[in-house]
Each structure stands twice: as structure tokens, then as C-alpha cells.
Amino acid sequence: MDDTPLPAEDTGASDALMPGLDLPETAPGPGYQVLARKYRPSTFEDLIGQEPMVRTLTNAFAAGRIAHAYMLTGVRGIGKTTTARLIARALNYATDEIDEPSMKLAMPGRHCEAIARSAHVDVMEMDAASRTGVGDIREILEGVRYAPVSARYKVYIIDEVHMLSASAFNALLKTLEEPPEHAKFIFATTEIRKVPVTVLSRCQRFDLKRIDREVLTGHLERICQLENASVDREGLSLIARAAEGSVRDALSLLDQAIVQGSEETGPVSAPQIRDMLGLADRARVLDLLEQALSGKTAEALEELSALYDAGGDPVVIGRDLLDYVHATSRVKAAGPGADLGEAADTVQRIVALAEKQSLGQLTRLWKILLTGLDDIRNAPDPLAAAEMTVLRLAAAAALPGPEEAARILAAHPPAQTGPAASAGEAPGKPEPAPAAPAGMAPVQPPAPLADGEVPADGPESFEALIALLREKRDIGLQSDIERYVRPAAFKPGSFTYRPEPGCPPDLAQRLARRLQEWTGARWGILASDEVEGGETWIERRRREEAERLERARRDPAVSEALRLFPGAEIVAVRQARREADGADDEHRTTEKRA
Description:
Rossmann fold, five-stranded parallel beta sheet, three-stranded mixed beta sheet, 24 helices, about 45% helix, flat, disordered N terminus, disordered C terminus
């Protein structure tokens, strides 16, 4: 038998409670508030990085030139909704001493607390992402004509206003054009281009800027002090960089970073935050870039593999490489004093890189990395795409820069082919190896044949090359050569050309491989956008056909035939060959069509 004493009989309000839902003896304290909400600005002075907007609003309020509608735009987490509530408080500011709109909110007014909690009857907040229809806007507009209940102005805050439908925007236009004196509108959007111009023209627009990395790092440091949290400044800088100018994102990441440390392990270090963010060590990424640009491909690939094994995302590594090439370009253009926002030792290494690269070369590297980043994002194996990007970097770094190639070409112009060569220019002068076009894998530059190495039955001109392709019946290669190749220089064992848009990227390799099979010698084939090429074979053929037609029209016999047969026209001119006494005589046959 259970000897547990029965509970005392309960009377009163507790009778209404279900079993197991008894009220606690003491009310629970407030739960943990995330940093993004805890440190939301409560005055305009608390806003960081938005000084131009605050200055404009302050001057407007002081002069009594208060607009009836504001449009706030910027990236996520930059403070658009917070700023809208601050403006609503400023419009309705009232204390025992002050009863007029004011930007000085240090002393809370009668309506400030309710507006900050989104609980004021005269300040309506609407999320257009969930209420997009014209009915939602009409519901708001029906109440616009009525005076505010207790505040000075009725304020309508519409967040993500670009999500409104076209009919909803149209319903809003008339009220925005002639609003009642007691009504103010504040719109916020991350997609300003989706807002109709007719709405924008009726609003005073403020573009909230991304917060500078150093400013955001300092802000995070102050919050750490208030929270009695110890985080390395380098780690805070990593958070600021990952947040991309968004204060809310930075504070959310800081919330996550603070719990990485403890009293036993000490302050939160930069490597811990780097691991938390999934970032590669930026110093090691700079090592990777230096190795690639120095031609140390094996070491560069090993470094990339090590970064990946340590948790580095190939996409992030690609972006870091882009950042460093951009920083190096800035140093090259503006000098060592360029503001890079990097540590002193990192700046020294970037300056050293800039001294070894030309501005044109850095532009080429930037293009290669930009293309490579897209490859990494879309490739089924991002690491493999990152490795190929690093190899392209190394190959491009080994080639002369565009400026140097231009100087070499100016000093040693390549031999001409076609009509230019027949005009008296001597072919056969050795040409330089111009740089491969940006984003294209470089091919083997033309190299002189070794002593005693002569192509067996090899072509000696571009025309002879076309004839060889026809003889060998390599239709695909012949078609690509005739369509996409602008010959620049040709001699036995070496061919340089300018590729046309749409040219297959492997055309030079295919041609070199086939010529080596046919002639028994290695050929250097170079495709380069840095050279001036002649006509493509198709262009040449069309030009010659047009010239033949023109010569036929000027022929007296043909002219007489055209006169005798009104409406006739020349449609083609064919070359007829016949053998006579061992010599070939060409006779023109002209086709006419009535």
C-alpha cells in the first residue's frame, strides 16, 4: 500500500489548471536574445556606416522639409527596417519638453518604446513578401484618410516593397502623389530595380551602403567587450569579410563564434573561426598564388590539395585568389600605398608580386580566375576544376605579357601570307610567340626545327596547307581551318594565326598532331588574339569569286551578250583547264542566266 500522503486540497484559481501544467513558483527570466536583436540601433547615432543618410535627414528635419515618402534600399541585414522604425520614431517624437519631429532620440519619447516593438497603433508595418495583392494595399489605403489616434503622423512601413504586384503598385500611386498631411510612407527593398519608376519618382531615396570591413570589425570588437567575450581581431576581420557588409549577418556569425571558446581553451582564435566558416587559410592561398605564378605547378597543386583536405571550399579558394589578384592589380596601378585592408606582412608579399607582373598580365590572370570560378561552381568535381584553374594560371604566367608581346611584334613583324607576301615582303622571318588569349589554354609556341630536321613533304605556305588537308581528306580539320583561321605567319615547321570567334579551342593541337603524322617533324602551331591575321580561306575564296565576276562583267564579249539578252545576269565564273603540249592553259567559261 502506498504510504505517500495525499496532497492538500486545492482551491481557487489553480482548480482551472490541467494536471502537469501548474504555474512555476517564480516567473522565468527572459531567454537569451541574439546579438542581432540585442544590439539593434536605438538612435541614429548608433547606425554605423550610414553617415550621409543621417546627415541628410538631420538637415531636412531641422529645416522642416520632411518628405512624405522614403525609399530605403540596400543588401540584406544592412539596417533598412531598423532605419524605418527610427524615422517613424523621429516623425512622432514627443516628450514633456519637445513636441515636434526630431532626430535626437537619446531621450525616449512617449511613442518610442511602442514603435520600437512594432506595437504602436499609428505605425503600421507590412511585409510585402507575404501580402502582395491589391487587396492588401487597399486595406491600408482605406485607413489613410483617417487621422492618427495618438501620434503626430500615421506611418506606413512596407518591407520588401518590390514584391508587390503591378496592380498593388498602381493602387498605391494616387495616394503617394497626394497623401494626406498626417500620413507618411517608408518603403524598404533589396531589389530596387524591381520597383516601378513611377513609385520611385514619388519617394526620397536613400541607398544604405555596405559597411566597410574595418568599420564592421571595430563594431564587432566593441560588442565583444560588452559581452565579455574574447575573440582575436583577425577572427573578427574574417567574420566581417564573410558578412559582405551586412551587420546582421556579422552579428549572427559572431553569436556562433563566441561559443567556440571557453575558459579552458582561452580566447577564440582566427583558425577556429576559419574552421567555423569553412574558409581556407588566406596566407596559404597567397602561397598557392605565388607558387602558380612562379611556375611551381607541383607545389601549387600540393598546396591546393592540402587546403582542400583542411576543409577549404574550392569556391572560396577561387574567390580568395581573385581577391589577391585584384589587390595586386591595385598595387600595380596605384603604388605600394594602395589601401588593401590586409595585414602588413601580406601587403609586403602583394607588393612583391606586383613588381614581377605587368598590368596587362594581371588583367589576363584576373580573366582566367573569373572564368575558372564559374567552372568550379558548375563542375561535378569542384576540386578538379580548381586544379585546372591553377594550371591555367601557371601556364599564363610563363607567357610574355601583352605589352611585351606587342613590343616584340613591333620590332620583329611576322611574315605575311597571301597578297601581302606577293607584294614584295619576304616571308620566313622568325616571329615572336605572342600571348595566348585570356581564358584559353596556351598551345606550344612555334619553335625552329632542330638542325637537319626538315618536314617531309610538308607545306611551305598556307595555300599549300589547305591543299594538303584536301589531299588527306581530313574534312573536319579542313573545314575548321578554312572557317576560323586568319593566317599571320607561316614557314615549314611553324604557323601562327589569329582565331575567329567560335574557333574550337583545340584546333592548334589537332593541326600540330596531324602535321607531325604527315611530315614526320614537330610543328609549332600558335593561336593568338595578339596578332593581326589575314583573310580566312572562306573570305579569300568569296573575294576572288567577286573579282572574277567583276572581270567577267567588264569583258567586251560578255557585255555584248548581256546587251543582246536583256534581263540576263552572270551567276558564276568557272575555271576550265585543258592540257596542250604539256602545258596547262586556263580558259574562262562564263555562265549566263536569262
